[in-house]
Structures are given as structure tokens and as C-alpha cells.
Amino acid sequence: MPSLRSWSVALVLSFAAAGCAAETDESTASDSANLNAATCGLDPTSPASPRRLMDEPLKDPEDAETRLGCLRTILTRQKDDRAPFASLYTDITISARAAIDAGRFEDGVWVARYMTTFAELYREAFVGYADGRADEIPGSWRIAFDAARDERPLQVQHVTLGVNAHVNRDLAHTLYIVGIGERGAVRESRKRDHFKVNEILRENVDATLSSLAETYAPGLGQSPAAVMRILTETYYQAVAAGRLKAWVDAVALSDAFPFLRPAIEDQIEVTSKLIARTILVPTINEDLAEKLREIEAGN
């Protein structure tokens, strides 16, 4: 007959086992809840989830941040080459929204509308392409989304294509839609707020690109620090130049006679499409593309 001691040991072990099971259940439930939040309640394995996620217009910067974050999670899990840009855009949106909350802008309400409208143009292009209306979306986005279905482009090209379409095409239209104000104090204030975003990008560029490389291009993440500094500086300067051009184009759109606006819009479209095609040049040669992919992957 078992001794009292053996019964006691058995009882302790059973309680311990029950505790471990409870902890495991709680951990599993917590992981499930975290995944549910990270994917906005959508199945991260379903090909339909990205489109469903972006179905409704974006309401405000918080909504944009939440849904972009979920899009990043879903696309990354599906190994979709639209993920790198979604990831970059999520990080930038988080930083910009934090700057609004911290009162870093002269007109936070205007910047919030600017952010929401900017993200909405991305959402509209994303949905239009997903719905088979590629001929109705901006050409630079069509090139970027077509490239995401092609195995040849590098991850860094996918990011750059997205940045090009969003900055070199969408940003001028965003500024025109939300309004940069008439000449004078309002316009100068909004100009300062527009370029304040450059400061925020500069502050976060190292961390943002390091995280991007670690997730999508580990070979770049393993590069010497000097190489990463060159890459981050090149990226920042390219974006800053695009943001400057976007402001100039927005001024032109705002001040032009109505009959001249189509010509300005055409210039924006043609320029962004030309840049997109240039971004893809390094992977036209398959042998070169393969070598670059190996370097990017860290092989």
C-alpha cells in the first residue's frame, strides 16, 4: 500500500502538472489572442485576407497604423513580396503618429488628415489591383504590384518600388487633396509640417531599415556597418528628394489654372513610372539577378 509520503509526492506532482498545463493553456490562449490582434481577426494563411483587411476606407491615422500592421503580418506570413513595403510603411506610420501625439507639428489636425489621405491612396491602389482593375490604378503602383508576382526582383527592389509609387506619385496628390493653403501664413505652416516629417524619417531611418533587412534581406543585415550607413543615407536622401518634389508638384497643382492641371498630373505619372522601370533594371539580367538574390538572402 502506498505510503503517506508517496501519496503526498503524487499529489504535489499532480498539482504541478496541472499548473504547467494551465500555464501552457494560458500561453496558447495568449499567443492566439496576440495573433488575432496582429492579423485584425483574419486568417493569416488565407489569400483573401489582405484584400478583406483593406476593404473599407481608412478612418484616421490610428486605423491606418492598425491595418497596415495587420497587413504586414499577413503578407509576411504568406511570403508575399508586397510585405517589405507594408512593413516599412507601418513603421513610418507609427513614428509619424507618435509625433502627432507628442505635439511636434504646428497643425496636428491637418497632419492627421494628410496621413490618412496618404494611406488611403495606397489602400485604393492595393484594392484596385487585387480586384483585377490594374488598368485603373496609377502606373507606378501597377509596376510595383506586377513585380511582387515576379520571382526575379530583390526585396530591396520591392521596397523601393513601393516608396517610389507612394512618394513620387501619391504624395503630391495627397497634399493637393488635403490642401496646402493659399499663399501666406497657412501655406508656410503646412510646408513646415510637411518637411517636419523628414526629421522624423531621419530619426528613425537606421532602426527602420535594420529591422527591414533582418526580416526580408538578412544578407544586407549582415553587411558591414559602413555599407548599411551608405544604404540608409542613400535611402533617406532619395526619399527627401521625392518629398521635396511632391511639395513643388502640390504647389503647381494648387496654383495652376484648371486647364493646366492635367499636364502637371501627367508629368507626375510619367516620372514615377519611369523611376519604377529604372528600379527594375538590375534584375533584367537573370544571371546578375540570381547573384544579387543570393547576396540579399545571405547565402
Structure report:
This protein is mainly alpha-helical. It has 2 domains: 1-38; 54-297, no CATH class. Helix content is 77%, strand content 0%. It has 12 helices and no strands. It has helices at residues 4-38, 49-53, 61-77, 83-101, 108-130, 139-147, 155-178, 185-216, 218-221, 225-255, 261-279, 286-297. The model is unreliable at 1-29 (pLDDT under 50).
Topology:
Elements: H1 4-38, H2 49-53, H3 61-77, H4 83-101, H5 108-130, H6 139-147, H7 155-178, H8 185-216, H9 218-221, H10 225-255, H11 261-279, H12 286-297
Helix pairs in contact: 3-4, 4-5, 4-7, 4-8, 5-7, 6-7, 6-11, 7-10, 7-11, 8-10
How many separate domains? 2
Q: Give the N-terminus to C-terminus distance in angstroms.
A: 63 Å
Model regions low in confidence, pLDDT < 50 over at least 5 residues: 1-29
Number of strands: 0
Q: Roughly what fraction of the amino acids lie in strands?
A: under 5%
C-alpha-based Rg, rounded: 24 Å
Helix content, binned percent: over 70%
Which tags fit this structure?
299 residues, mainly alpha, 2 domains
Compact overview of the structure:
This protein is mainly α and 299 residues long. The protein has helices spanning 4-38, 49-53, 61-77, 83-101, 108-130, 139-147, 155-178, 185-216, 218-221, 225-255, 261-279, 286-297.
